[in-house]
Amino acid sequence: MQKKLEFRGSWVMSFIPIVVFLIFCVLYFIVFKAFEMYALAMGAFVGLLVGALFTQKGHYARFWDAVYEGAKESVPIGVLLFIIGMFSSLIKACNVSAGFVWLADSLNVSGGLFTAFTFLAVCIISSATGSSIGSMFTCFPIFYPAGVLMGSNPAMLAGAIVCAAVFGDNLAPISDTTIISAATQEYTRREGFAEVGGCVSSRLKYSLVGGIISFFIFWLVGGGGSVGSGAEDILAANMNPSSLVMLIPVAIMLAVAVKTRDIYKATTVGIVLGTITGLAFNLITFENVLSVQDGAPKGFLTDGVSGMMATVTLVISVYGIMGVLNAAGALERITNKILESKLGNTVVGAEIAMMLGICITTLIFGGVTSASMATFGKVQNELGKRVGLHPYRRANLLDGFANSLPVVVPFLSCFAFIGALLSQGYDFVEPLSIVQVASGMIYCVVLFFVLLFSVLTGWGRVYEGPDGKPVKSPVNPDGKKAMSA
User: Residue 484 — very low, low, confident or very high, per pLDDT cuts 50/70/90?
Assistant: First the structure.
C-alpha cells in the first residue's frame, strides 16, 4: 500500500493547489473577463507548484507522483475530446445556424415567438456542436440583433441564447461536460466508467421537460420589445436552407451513440457521413476538410484538435490536483463526513448532498462547469457508489445541477458575463447588464427544479444491478434486491 501524502500542518494544506486555481478562475473570468481555458490550466499548474512546497520532508517526490497518477486518469477523456472536437468543428464549418435563420424568416415569427424559436434553434445547434460558448459566439451576432428589431424582449432573447447554449452543453454526447460527467462515475459491479450514450439517453427526459416548459415561457414573456427596421437585412445576409441537411448526420450520430453506447463509433459515423453530406451540398470544400495555407494547417480536422487543446489541458491540470487530494486522503475525508451526516442516512439525502456539492463548486469556479465537474465528480462518485446509485444517475445529477442555477447567478457566472459582452455594439439597443442576461436564463432555473423534483420523488432514479445494469431498486452486494432504498 502506497504511503499517504502528508503536508505541513495537516491534510487541509492539500487544498492549496485548488485554492490557487480558484483565485485564477475568479481573476480571469470575473475580473479580467478573459474567457480562456489555457489561462485556467496555467492557474492549476501554478497551484501545483505552490502546493508542492508545503509537503512534509520526504514527500515532495510523492506529491508529483500523485499528480501523475491523477493526470493519467484524464487520458481517456482527452483522447475522446480531441476526436469529438473534429466533428464539432465540421458542424461549425457547415454553418447550421444559417438554416435556422432561413426557417425563422420563412415562418415570419416575431416578438415572443421569435424568442422561443431562437431558444429552440440554439438548443439544436449547441447539441449538434457540443459547445456552449462556441454556440453563443456563433448565434448571438445573428439571432440577437434580428430578434430585437423584430420585437423580442432583449433580456429574454439574450437569456434564451445563453441557456440554450447550456442546454446543448448538458445534453450533447460530444460535449466536454457530458464526457467529463460520465468519465468521473465508475461502476462497482464491473470495470469501467459510465458510457456517454447511456448517460445521454437517460438524461434526455430531464432536458426535454425543462426545454418544453422553457419554450412556452419564452413565448409568453419573450416579446414586448419595440419593432424596428433592418431585421430582414440581417436575416437575409445569414440564411442558407441547405445547411439544415447537416442535421441528418447529427441525428444519425446521436442514434448510434444511444444505441451502441459507444461514442467512438458514433463520432466516426458522424465525421464520415457529415463530411460526405457537407461536400455533396457544397457546404464545405475539400480545402475545408484538410489543407495548408501559408505553411499553416487548415481544415475542420486540424481545427477540431487545436480547438480542444485548451480544454484538454485544463482537464489534465484539474485531474492532477485531484490526484493530490486523493493521495492526501482529502477526498475520502470529505466523502465520509457527508455520509456520516444526516444527509448520508438515505439515498435522497445523498442526492441532495450531491446537488449542494456540485452547485457550490460550480459557483466557486465562476460557472466553469468542466472544471467544477472534474473537481467534485470524484466526491460524487464515492457518494453514489456507497448508496448503490447507478453511474448514469450520478453523472446526470452532476452535469444537470452544474448547468442549472449555478450558471445563472450574476457576477459568479461566466455565461452571464459572455451574454452581456455579446449584447454590446448595437446602435438600436442598449447593452445588457449581467443581471438582465441572468434574468432571461429561464431554462437553467427550470432545469434545477426539474432535477430537484427528480431527487425528491425518485423520478428517473436507478441503481446499479448485476453486471452494472440499471435497476429500479437498490441491490445488495450478493446481487439480491435490498429491503429498502
Answer: very low
- Identify which has the larger pLDDT, 2 or 213: 213
3-state SS record for the chain = CCCCCCECCCHHHHHHHHHHHHHHHHHHHHHCCCCCHHHHHHHHHHHHHHHHCCECCCCHHHHHHHHHHHHHCCHHHHHHHHHHHHHHHHHHHCCCHHHHHHHHHHHCCCHHHHHHHHHHHHHHHHHHHCCHHHHHHHHHHHHHHHHHHECCCHHHHHHHHHHHHHHHHHHCCCCHHHHHHHHCCECCCCCCECCHHHHHHHHHHHHHHHHHHHHHHHHHHCCCCCECCCHHHHHHCCCCHHHHHHHHHHHHHHHHHHHHCCHHHHHHHHHHHHHHHHHHCCCCCHHHHCEEECCEEECHHHHHHHHHHHHHHHHHHHHHHHHHHHHCCHHHHHHHHHHHCHHHHCHHHHHHHHHHHHHHHHHHCCCCHHHHHHHHHHHHHHHHHHCCECHHHHHHHHHHHHCCHHHCCCCCCHHHHHHHHHCCCCCCCCCCCHHHHHHCCHHHHHHHHHHHHHHHHCCCCCEECHHHCEECCCECCCCCECCCC
pLDDT, tens only, 127-166: 998 888 889 998 999 999 999 999 999 999 999 999 999 9
What is the average pLDDT score of the chain? 91
Predicted pLDDT of residue 476: 62
Quick: pLDDT tens for 222-267.
Answer: 998 776 778 788 888 888 999 999 999 999 998 998 888 888 999 9
pLDDT average, residue stretch 106-120: 93
Domains of the chain, by residue range, sit at: 11-471
